[in-house]
Amino acid sequence: MNKRGQLSFVADVSTDLWGSGFGEVARRLLTAGVGCFATAGFMATTTRDITAGAGVSPAALYVHFPSKEAVLFEIVLAAHRDSLRVVREVEVCGDPADYLRTLVSHFVAWHARYHVAGRVSQYELSALSAEHFDVIVGLRHRTIEVFHQAIARGRGVGAFPVVDEHRVVRAIVSLGVDLVRWYRDDGADSPAELGEFYGELALGMVQAAGARARPPGDLLAGGAQAANE
Amino acid sequence: MNKRGQLSFVADVSTDLWGSGFGEVARRLLTAGVGCFATAGFMATTTRDITAGAGVSPAALYVHFPSKEAVLFEIVLAAHRDSLRVVREVEVCGDPADYLRTLVSHFVAWHARYHVAGRVSQYELSALSAEHFDVIVGLRHRTIEVFHQAIARGRGVGAFPVVDEHRVVRAIVSLGVDLVRWYRDDGADSPAELGEFYGELALGMVQAAGARARPPGDLLAGGAQAANE
DNA sequence: GTCTATAGCGGGATAGAC
DNA sequence: GTCTATCCCGCTATAGAC
User: Fold this and answer.
1) What is the pTM of this model?
2) How long is the CA A8 to C1' C9 vector, in angstroms?
3) Under a CB-based contact definition with an 8 Å cutoff, are residues A222 and A164 in contact?
4) What is the mean pLDDT of chain A?
């Protein structure tokens, strides 16, 4: 739809993520960090890359952040906080199907819109310190919980079939998260369009999971699985 | 489930991936490389890590491979070749639904079984040289094509609704690939179980994509939109 | 073909002027 | 708060003995 030249006016949307607690230079460092970490990875990114991207000298980074890892943490923290905010702001309407569809739609649209920061948030977690990692895991649990309650509510009122809730939630979230691996701004789908489409897919997944014949005697299914679930 | 010390008896299944073209030491280096790259990433992995894991001196790596990048390439190449082989070996049976379900099931089970090598294959591509990267992209296209034909065949005989084929294929493959991000060997689901479950989910996704309510006035929905994507 | 030893380089973090 | 200059460590890759 958009013609050539129009991409340049699109500012890096990652800048929307930085809270008011950061000054001008700190925000520029964070934005530069997102780009560097997303394309090259944390370890392959040098502090000189980040500071050059922000237009300051290498030493200036340590005025605003205690370490390179701290820059990564602030990025990952801001992204996880914002995506949690988005799913929590979805109004719990009467129809469970509408609610789940809207929930998935917003979650997916967020990951499409912030796919660059999302890539950093998903793939560079191993570079975080143990303490910082724990903070992020906590936020992830809270996000997952929103989806769990959406499925449980639908099943409670009979709108959804009985499903292996953990597996279905994991699959739906997995589908949304994986966007950050392949989504491109110049692709065919806008974040909103993709969100709507995936909202329908999620409903189809719930129905298919309910229709599925379970293995005989598999009464304990749905237990804990992944470390970062 | 497993207590300490018991993990060591679980042979790394990545060793199944190395072809007969590699000697004993080269295979050990590749296997060690998989573990290192998966946990720390390519850039954070040192040649000392890899050689120590293989039980040889740092210099021995360069007898068997020209560079650290070459070790990564052989790993990624072997993984992509093997997953392509698996989906191609699925027999094209009469029922399109059975075929798609089996296809997804095997694709997913492969990524669960080889999730460690799969993680390297999916997340360390940026560390490859341009030439090596192109080789991998070619293999990925061939894998995607198998799924496209499965959907197209089902639609051709009326077993599947008219869907936005690119979007559906991308979502199904995305779901399978993202396993490598969270799957754990000590989790609740075996590769085969997860494959079966995801096979059902894929069918539900195809149905949901077909049943999806189009925006009002969008009378050209379906074929026309998908055709030129 | 494997080893020890090391060359050569690049990056995280810091010192101190302004 | 930003700069220039630099320390010091650790990494890839190589040299040369065995």
Assistant:
1) 0.90
2) 37
3) yes
4) 90
